[in-house]
Amino acid sequence: MSGFFAFFGGLAGLLWESLGYIARGAVSYRHTLRQMAEVGVGSLFVALITVGFSGAVACLYIAIQLVKLGQQGYVGGLVGKSIALEVAPVITAVVVAARAGSAMAAELGTMKVTEQVDALRSLATSPTQYLVVPRVLGTLIMLPIITILSNGAGTVGGYIAAISNGVAPNTYWQSVQNMVTLTDQFSGLLKTIPFALVISLVGCRQGLTTSGGAEGVGQSTTSAVVYAMIGIFVCDFFMSVIFQDLFY
Amino acid sequence: MIELRHVTYSIAAEYSDEADDEHHPAWHDGRQFILDDVSFVVPERSITCIMGVSGTGKTTLLRLIAGLLKPDSGEILVNGRDVVPMNEKQLNQVRRDMGFVFQYGALFDSMSIAENVGFGLQQQRRPCAEIEDIVTARLEDVGLPGIEDKMPGELSGGMRKRVAMARALATGPRIVLYDEPTSGLDPVMARVIDDLVVHLRDTAGTTNVVVSHHLPSILRIADRVLMLHNARLQIEGTPAQVQASDDPVVRQFLDARADGPITVR
């Protein structure tokens, strides 16, 4: 039980400290740009592929049923809504957690066990300011951008599956335009904020608390991905409930 | 000046035969005492060497002085200010005047040697030209000119340690903590490093704490020598006083004998 409180206490402490540095403008833009590249370049291609195919699969099931019922006019809208609200933000976050969150835990974990984090402190530099803040900001900036792009990939993936199953191209896009609202897009994007915080803070926290050499780094990396994924799905549920009350 | 007053530091004990031995001096109440009621003074502009067998808390002592660890109890005064109750921000003020040479270098893997050595200066927002000059000078001091563009992975263990020393000295600290600065170095380079420590004390007036196993080095450079054994201070004095000691623990260590009160586990 003490480990549970230590974990959430550590996350809250890192968040509070990071927000303090961001509020004071004590941010290294060079390092933030580097982290944006790490998160973005590393995850974009995988996110486009996974969300694109997820959109295609979702559309496959929806199109087959609705075409049978003669309701192909709803295919694009239903697929677009599910991608914008759920598939794109969640799968993109999972991809970024697996790709970038694990890299954060591994890099910071290695720095911890080789005393580089202590070296930073001995040089009067806060590890939170120097290591955590750029990673939090990099993820906060890049996750929505990757989500927007993967949202597009998912909708196109759905389009390909739809026209392969007898839905007319114009009908698909018309349905997307009619049914997928700006509120849907906004709701999906809003989810990426807590997702980005979960991914970056869990990755950094697990890295900075690493002990025990190479084995410890491996454990931190694995736990960073597992905890971040759990966090993403729990946040997703509560955000969805809140959005239903607020927007729908 | 650095002063430790009744400093105790312990960690949660894992199971071992020692933990079951209630008479063992370094174990009480299921905790392993790394340091138990240790007090001493490091005078200004001096070189104090701390010796002792592996695992006696020498590195822990340095980390406590630098504020990287908090003791269970006691006071650690650095230039008259107790670092124990300080938060990280206050500690950073103290650390700006302190250099720490880590045992294995702890160089930043993702940075070049020049970036490593100039890191502290960069954080102090010094002009680039000044940083370049200081980096070049410090690398020359440790016998490694012209390696600014190399990466830490391209260097040997001894070279990494010397770069770490250059990094610690780059900001011109008044207090320097060395964790085994000459271990793993050849005799010639060990002598160069020893001479540099003495030179810094004599010219820049640095206060130095050197953790070392290397007896010839300790006896050559130290103004004062401390020996830690079983979490306590076994002896404190000038190199001559320590060498003349008839304490069996000190004698066994100085004579490098396997038999004696120091048990090897």
Give a quick set of tags describing it.
heterodimer; A: 248 residues; mainly alpha; 8 helices; 0% strand; B: 265 residues; alpha/beta; six-stranded mixed sheet; five-stranded antiparallel sheet; 11 strands; 24% strand
Describe, in plain words, how this protein is organized in 3D.
- The complex is a heterodimer of chains A (248) and B (265).
- Chain A has helices at residues 2-23, 29-68, 75-113, 116-122, 127-164, 169-179, 182-208, 213-247.
- With 248 residues, chain A is mainly α.
- Chain A is elongated and about 70 Å long.
- With 265 residues, chain B is of the alpha/beta class.
- Chain B contains eleven helices and eleven strands.
- Chain B has helices at residues 17-20, 58-65, 88-95, 113-117, 119-123, 128-141, 157-170, 187-203, 215-221, 239-243, 248-255, and strands at residues 2-12, 27-28, 31-42, 47-51, 73-78, 81-82, 98-101, 175-179, 207-211, 224-229, 232-237.
- Chain B has a six-stranded mixed β-sheet with strand order 7-8-9-4-10-11, with helices on both faces. A five-stranded antiparallel β-sheet of chain B has the order 2-3-1-5-6, with helices on one face.
- In chain B, a hairpin with a 2-residue loop joins strand 5 (73-78) and strand 6 (81-82).
- In chain B, helix 6 packs across helix 7.
- The longest helix of chain B is centred in the C-terminal third of the chain and has 17 residues, at 187-203.
- The two termini of chain B are 36 Å apart.
- In chain B, 41% of the residues are buried.
- The model of chain B has no long low-confidence stretch (mean pLDDT 89).
- The chains are: A mainly alpha (248), B alpha/beta (265).
